[in-house]
Amino acid sequence: MARSCFSKVDEYGFERPDDFDYETYEDFMSQYLIVLAKRAKKWAELIGEGKSLKRNLTVKRYVRKGIPGEHRGLVWLTVSGAEALRDEWGSDFYQKLLNGPMNQDIVDIVRTDLPRTFPDNIFFSAGENHQQQLYNILVAYAHDNHEVGYCQGLNYIAGLLLLVTKSEDTTFWLLKVLVERIFPNYYTRTMDGVITDIDVLDELIRLKIPEVHRHVASVGLPWAVITTKWFICLFAEVLPIETVLRIWDCLFYEGSKIIFRVCLTLVKRNQGSILQCKDFSSLAECFKEITRDSLVIECHDFMQSIFKVPGSLPLNLIVKLRTRLAQQRQNQMRSDR
């Protein structure tokens, strides 16, 4: 096979797996680099020299088509409301947290988890700088939000934010807005938000892809086994890095319903393969495969498809389902006591 022109390590420091499909990736990138160049020019014109970036239909359309890497930190901070949050709390708030008293239990658990964070990433494994920065962010956030403290999964979210933004302060505020505004109750000790949203996804699949829903139920594979990591890590460590960042572009602008669009698209576009699985183990393996095939490598096409394949998905439907299913679970817990 011809030698690939792409390194075994991507631009964010992640080592590509041994079975990485370089041929598909090269075919995709030959076209995608043209798209990136066009988008970079349009974003440069939109942002301009010191021009304020406000939420509007033009910005929303641009976000859906992808934010260039050099602008991601700024755009995420602005469109998510994290910048306004920083202005409200004070630009020195993060540093004050680091300078304040530390809970030794939190310090110890964060230090224990650091080596487990992206062990195949050269920036986290080759030196102390990124690990120290990630430690600062996680410890500061745990002391800011006592209800959440430190929850496993936050290390992956904060780690990827840091790799993209290259700024501790920006990462802290983006983490804060993700955990407290976009995904409230995901990273609490009971993970009620994650449990509820997995139930919501189950119901959405029943409504939109009933054949798959019946088949997965008949095999006996719980959706929680399949999708818990999808929700907790927001697809980090699940999908290819370019695809994850394109998803996060939309998450910071449009909120948590994007997660459901991604999940439904993955399931619906792979309906045939899923229905062919006859037992628990083959179905579980199928769901692993669909997160690394050519459909998700080609992030531009994939991101276009998440706004078409699932069909209509109004936020009020998701809110109603969350309310109903959370209440049902609470009632069930009371009856089980």
From TrEMBL:
It comes from the Eukaryota. PROSITE patterns: TBC_RABGAP (PS50086). The gene is grtp1a_2. SMART domains: TBC. GO terms for molecular function: GTPase activator activity; small GTPase binding. Residues 66-255 form the Rab-GAP TBC domain. This is Growth hormone-regulated TBC protein 1. May act as a GTPase-activating protein for Rab family protein(s). Keywords: GTPase activation. Pfam families: RabGAP-TBC. InterPro entries: Rab-GAP-TBC_dom, Rab-GAP_TBC_sf, Rab_GAP_TBC_domain.
